[in-house]
Sequence to fold (688 residues):
Amino acid sequence: MIGSLEQPSDAARAIVEFCRLARENGLPAGVPETLVSLEAAAALGVDKEQDLKFGLRSVLCSSKDDWDLFEECFQTFWRRSEPESSANRRTRSKKEGSSAFGKRDSISLMSTGSTDDVSSEEDGGLAVAGASTRERLSKADVSTLPQSDMAMLEQLALRLFKQMSRRLQRRRRIGTSRGQVDLRRTIRRSISRGGEPMSLRFRERKLRPHRLVTLLDISGSMSAYSLFLVKFLYALQKHFRHVNTFLFSTNLVEITSLLGAQRLQEAMQALSRQPAGWSGGTDIGGSLQEFNQLHGKKLRSSDTFFMILSDGWDTGDAGVLSAELRAVKRRVRRVIWLNPLLGLKDYQPITCGMSAALPHIDVFAPAHNLESLLALERHL
Amino acid sequence: MGMSPTPPSVAANQSVDAIVSGFERLGYVADRSLATALYLVTTLRKPILVEGHAGLGKTEVAKVLASYLGTRLIRLQCYEGLDVNSAVYEWNYQKQLLAIKIEEGSDKSVEEKEKHIFSREFLLERPLLQSILVEDAAPVLLIDEIDRADEAFEAFLLELLSDYQITIPEMGTIHAKHVPYVVLTSNRSRELGDALKRRCLYQWIDYPNLEKEMKIVRARLPNIEQELARQVVGYVQSVRGLNLTKPPGVAATLDCAEALMALGKVRLDEAAIEETLGCISKSVDDDTKIRSAARDKIVVAGSMGRVL
Fold:
């Protein structure tokens, strides 16, 4: 041991301090890890720098990303260049990004956030809004709705989305059927009857919840809808066990963990800090390609629903879009494309990107108002 | 660690260097980082999680570790829907039914009968239980592709890896005689739980560089011509830069080199690439990409350009 706990040697102190730096920089280096680090250092000896580095790395890291981060920490600490912890904190959290959220619709965002708690109770301010208002709101196109109605719509939406995803869950739970005979329990019960298996015990098939992978277009042409749709995804994600949610414009950003926040307001704040290219250009094909390369392996044909929310206005290569979507389709159970423009009376899906994508889509549905989003339940 | 049932018993001559050279003797080229991590596995007795792309020898780590330590390898292959029955233990129901029938006439009490049919004799040991029950020396327990099993199983594993004991309701709790060396592998098809990750040492295996891959080819295929080996490795290294759906791992390099030797080739030309394409590419799209790259002399030229 390089030093007892009461009187730590210089080496031990250095390692504890290094663990603290690592923790401040976002590595999973808690007290147990620090103790293991000390043990590791004792086993490896502190004189060989490279061995010590590799050893500590295997203790303090738990993913490839951590590895890269560790490298920085180690350099910083042992080179004594700048042991200032905040200097190289995870770049992701540092970048403020162009927060389109901050500027746009900040009023409605605030109002939703503050009333979120209330709306989760059965009747918030909504009981006041009569049935006719509700009707009107749920049919209205999100992009043309006046700011004053927006807040009310969002309350209504959140509640209905929650109900919807709860219903989706329950449907799965009831749908179980009698499965195989469970020999173990059957025999156990038969002992008291002299070994005759009088009553059979059954093993129910364990139902795996479906997976949902969603890609939301946040390019300029979608800006009237994207903020509303994010809230839809937030509600949906809360009640699915396996959801992966991505934003894309010209590149792809995963926001699954951000939407996992307890309250909508927190989730939205986290999102506004995320540099994601709000209201930028669109490259659907390229984004799908990126998705396939990074996350394609996670798709499983038996139980994954793949959902794209986009208007299909694409500046990328339509050939790439078609090829990538076909690759996705081979791996999933159903490809769902929700297009807000489909709500327009005379809309024809003839844009280059949309017509390239159409052959590979199982469900093509509108997403311009609340009603159309709730109708999605039928397809999941 | 303090809680483990048996104190770690490490041969005095073990060190990081010993592992590097020992693994090399067994035909596995381990870099310093992996060897250090494995050394910590043997001294601290913590499980290790090995992640990396397919075909880079993750599973091999456990196999070689077992033969290096001169101990048994117990392997559990994970898959979707893996449950406790096939991972830990199961009762031999047919035998139990028979035993009940045979004892029908005897005057044993119900309790005695129950005790009999739930004894070790009727227990089918699955890998995890086996690893706990090993009598003579600590085995290497390989839990392969843990990312394929579901979260419920992961949670169960967590319990096993913290206490190294298994409870069978009918028999009681069984403690490990020797804490096994645990190697978990993952292809990162899903993110593992934080709790499990924090319990393990971590090792990321990346694609090897040219020099290391040459060493691997030479260690695995001692009979290969130097020139051919250099060409194959250069070729595969440049194919990895082609942005394929499934980039070839080291296993593919070895397959390709072996295939070329079997075909009696002494150098890698366009025809040879075509004939061994199946070793390198695992999808039609990748086939096309490699073919066109080969036609444009990108991949072969790449292998010519780099001289060791």
Observations:
- DSSP finds 16 helices and nine strands in chain B.
- Chain B touches chain A through 45 residues (CB under 8 Å).
- The longest strand of chain B covers residues 181-186.
